[in-house]
Write a structure and sequence with these properties.
single chain; 389 residues; alpha/beta; Aspartate Aminotransferase, domain 2; 2 domains; binds pyridoxal-5'-phosphate
């Protein structure tokens, strides 16, 4: 074995029973299309654990966001307020319906949509707000829900990264009208590709099932509520097959353990890098900024990021770490300045924080099986970089 093995950015964690459950789906249940026993188990787990009225597994968080746009009846010209510092699916889901993403800036502390800018961004055409819980850190949901209720807007939480984080005792994704989770390989709890739509608005629950099943009332037929099933609404194929659901169930059973381990690793990073964080003083160098989780919630340890002082410094640090076998990566290129964002979106106010952060943010390796030794190597390499200048 080489003395300094490479430290990847991410390494998907296999909980242990995935293949056993897949084998059960294939050999015992003989049900591998969607909406079978493992899908039911996963959905029940999500409903009970997260406290939502209804959960539907989807093939991705992207799919869950697209279902949300359909459920909210987004039509051409309708405006949807969202951060620009997010993944393309947050915007694409609404653009597919002819909606116009209205980008607002993010807060400097949590890097989440700045709720103080929301009221000013609302127009007669606004239909919905999409808060994105960046890195699994909660948005200020109380303020967002309050503005939405007053203005008659729907709230769709993009909780892709936020599975099992909470805000004031409630799970992220369970607070808005709709919530979207991702089980993509890069997230905390995974099924390769995968996601879930969480439906908290009871009035949307039945229509969600119809949209999920290609616009048919097939679910009602299987429950014996109608004597034949037929085409009743628009819809598409949003459900994953049972093989994916079986894999996911093995992960959900271990979810609390996975989150606890990641949280421990995250806390260890925070302690190890505290000396480099601002403000500068006798024990602190003040050269970089660390995540701020806020006191109103619990955190799922999804991303360990640092914010450097400049784009040039970040580029040098990535190179410095790469030379030591450590893979660190930046994150979003803001949507508002992307070719598609410029074409179909609108910017509200200025994007000062979004632009500054996207140039300077760097994500460090963090995965379930990361050893303390490897983390110490990363911390030492970051400290070494700043010690040298
Ligand atoms: C990962 C991610 C998505 C997309 O998730 P998929 O399951 O890959 O479709 C959407 N939004 C955010 C904020 C994400 O991090």
């Amino acid at each position: 074995m080489p003395k300094d093995p490479k430290i990847p950015f991410n390494r998907p964690y296999i909980a242990g029973r995935e293949l056993e459950y897949i084998s059960r789906a294939v050999n015992e249940n003989r049900k591998i299309s969607g909406d079978g026993p493992f899908t039911a188990k996963c959905q029940a787990w999500l409903e009970q654990t997260l406290g939502v009225k209804k959960a539907l597994l989807t093939h991705s968080c992207t799919g869950a966001l697209e279902m949300s746009a359909l459920l909210c009846d987004i039509r051409p010209g309708d405006e949807v307020i969202m951060p620009s510092f997010t993944f393309v699916s947050t915007a694409n889901a609404f653009v597919l319906r002819g909606g116009v993403p209205v980008f607002v800036d993010i807060r400097e502390d949590t890097l989440n949509l700045d709720e103080r800018l929301l009221s000013g961004a609302v127009t007669a055409k606004t239909r919905a707000i999409v808060p994105v819980h960046y890195a699994g850190t909660p948005c200020d949901m109380d303020v967002i829900m309050d503005i939405a209720r007053k203005k008659g807007l729907k709230v769709i939480e993009d909780a892709a990264q936020a599975h099992l984080s909470t805000h004031r005792g409630r799970h992220l994704g369970s607070i808005g009208d709709l919530g979207c989770l991702s089980f993509h390989e890069t997230k905390n709890v995974i099924s390769g590709e995968g996601g879930a739509l969480l439906i908290n608005d009871a009035e949307m629950a039945e229509r969600a099932e119809i949209i999920w099943e290609k616009g048919t009332n097939r679910k009602r037929f299987f429950r014996g509520e109608v004597d034949k099933y037929t085409w009743v609404d628009i819809g598409s194929s949003f459900l994953p097959g049972e093989i994916v659901a079986a894999f996911l169930y093995a992960q959900l059973e271990m979810a609390e353990t996975i989150i606890a381990a990641r949280r421990r690793l995250f806390d260890r990073y925070m302690a190890g890098l505290a000396g480099l964080a601002g403000p500068a003083g006798p024990t602190q160098k003040g050269v970089l900024r660390l995540p701020e989780i806020g006191k109103d919630g619990t955190y799922n340890g999804h991303i360990m990021y640092i914010v450097t002082r400049s784009l040039a410094e970040r580029t040098q640090l990535i190179e410095h770490l790469a030379q030591r076998g450590i893979k660190a990566v930046f994150h979003y290129v803001p949507l508002h300045s992307s070719p598609m964002g410029e074409k179909c979106g609108r910017v509200h106010g200025n994007m000062a924080v979004t632009d500054a952060v996207s140039d300077r943010l760097l994500r460090l390796p963090l995965y379930y099986e990361m050893s303390d030794d490897d983390m110490d190597r990363v911390i030492a390499a970051v400290a070494g970089f700043y010690g040298q200048r």
